[in-house]
Design brief:
The complex is a heterodimer of chains A (482) and B (250). By secondary structure, chain A is of the alpha/beta class. Helices cover 27% and strands 29% of the residues of chain A. The chains are: A alpha/beta (482), B alpha/beta (250).
Chain lengths: 482, 250
Amino acid sequence: MSTEANDIDLLVNRRYEHGFVTDIETDSLPPGLDEDVIRAISGRKNEPEFMLEWRLKAYRYWLTQKEPVWSHVSYTPIDYQSISYFSAPKSDADRPKSLDEVDPKLLETYEKLGIPLHERAKLAGVAVDAVFDSVSVATTFKGKLAEAGVIFCPFSEAVIEHPELIKKYLGSVVPYRDNFFASLNSAVFSDGSFVYIPKGVRCPMELSTYFRINAANTGQFERTLIIAEEGSYVSYLEGCTAPMRDENQLHAAVVELIALKDAEIKYSTVQNWYPGDENGKGGIFNFVTKRGDCRGDNSKISWTQVETGSAITWKYPSCILRGDNSVGEFYSVAVTNNMQQADTGTKMIHIGKNTRSTIVSKGISAGKAQNSYRGLVRIMPQATNARNHTQCDSLLIGKQCGAHTFPYIEVRNPTAQVEHEATTSKISADQLFYCRQRGIAEEDAVNMIVNGFCKEVFKELPMEFAVEAQALLNVSLEGAVG
Amino acid sequence: MLEIKNLEVSIGDTQILRGLSLSIGTGEVHAIMGPNGSGKSTLALVIAGHEDYKVTAGSVHFEGQNLLDLAPEERARKGVFLGFQYPVEIPGVNNAYLLKAAVNARRKHQGESEIDAFEFLQLAREKMKLLEMDPSFLNRGVNEGFSGGEKKRNEILQMAMLEPRLAILDETDSGLDIDALKAVAKGINALRDPQRSIVLVTHYQRLLDYVEPDYVHVLSKGRIVRSGDKSLALELEERGYDWVQEAASA
């Protein structure tokens, strides 16, 4: 059907609406990486000695490692010496006092994106002094959290204020030797979030990076650590649907979750980094290590992710089901358009008895994009009665994209039950014609079909987030119609 | 209502309709019959605007307007409805959701406000009762895992909800058992209206026992070779298509 192919080309080649470049002053270290750079990073953050030591060990280990090449993505080699590893958030004194002092170019961008006025101030890094709505909201939230004994602060603050917790838990789920990018992150991580939920506490609100003061400017090597003590519960939201502005091409974040006995962590992500232009130029490389440890019996960790941005996504949020009866879940929607490449999935490592895991992965490819699911389900010998159900669906839009599935299943206990279902479908011309014959415009029909495809994942997201994610998906696939 | 003149249509290099003319007045029910491959479904899909079919000559006017200039969704919003021979499955998309979007697209075009959820549900339940459909249909994926008969009923439900000006039902009777056929016929008869025209594309006389057409046309090799009243359908049933085709080529 030649008309169909033409339409796809025409529509797919529309520009990413949120792509913009804004020149902003930064207080950065010169490009390059050696031990002095690491000392400088640590020094600027006034870190205690143990932190510097850990960074250096990670760096020395990283030097012995080679960049992994097994993923189904291709990109020009990264020159690690050409990257600047520190971009300081400005101190309050240096921050703009009001929006009047903010770079007009940046404000113009927010205008274009339709970001509400009170949120622009925070995004632009205006010094926080409880003038703006979002800030007062954040302050109120902080009070409520403190009352419950919940610690929610920038990672760098936790290093100084709660060194005993950092020493005990940092690297306990993702050791600095874990993989190339995790080693690099351990050596040079900039900042991130730290969350501690005390025993028996149900965190009184959903924690969102959005409400974390100083959330902007955490930089390219983010480090997050969440600890849920016995019997506690927390739901954490990462990212937002507003596109992330970043001049740094390489991102290598590490997230560690620890759920102790009877604890539950729900971690939701919406990622919308710049994917590059239609030729893939300028997009973000996102190499992330996310892992949760169900350390105690009856604990539960649930990952939900909606990935629409980045030129390259390399990400496998995983669960180690160590405690008996522990539960791991992974719900994912990964959208790739134009030249985007995503190699994403999960690992479920069953160690404890009666452990259960669920994997629901929805990959959507349009344009010339490549979308891969890579998942590992491993049942260890001692994990009696372990169960896994994996459902892995791919949806193709157009004729030049690809979907790939790489499931690995290792079962070392005969009592295990492991199920894997996979489907690949296309938005067919027949489906679109059917909707159009009912009076529904083509793009609305695509959105309807895509959202139907993702429904199982969206229902796992917190309510408002789900609505936003749905809208985001529509924007991401705008024009990808055939 | 619908005026087709000397219509020639090809798909790829194959010509399917070869100078077809047909005139359908407001409030009339026409049956188009013919053997396999005669071009019945092509005619239905061309009127609906399927882009695989290329119109190489002739014209199609709907209420005085050149239909061939309009996109499929525009035709639909103006009140042209096609009941598909093979309704497609759209997994995960809720039947009610599609139906509501379709109803609202039509209402918006007519300058009316969107239907509210309560009103929609009430209307849908009423129509489903008429078609002897279980209310749970609304919450299932569009045609997902439906039996052949369920799919056809679902088409009639959509027609009932959309209240089109012109409804073309492409082999809506095929694959139905007798109970389903009766329910579908009941649905169609309920929609007979002096302001609405209906075209039944069918292979067999069977449906016409329950929905009496005003006119019957026989399509053969891309042209209408014979027109008459409902007695023509009975004659076809008795004598097969061969005699009309022979008569036409003689």
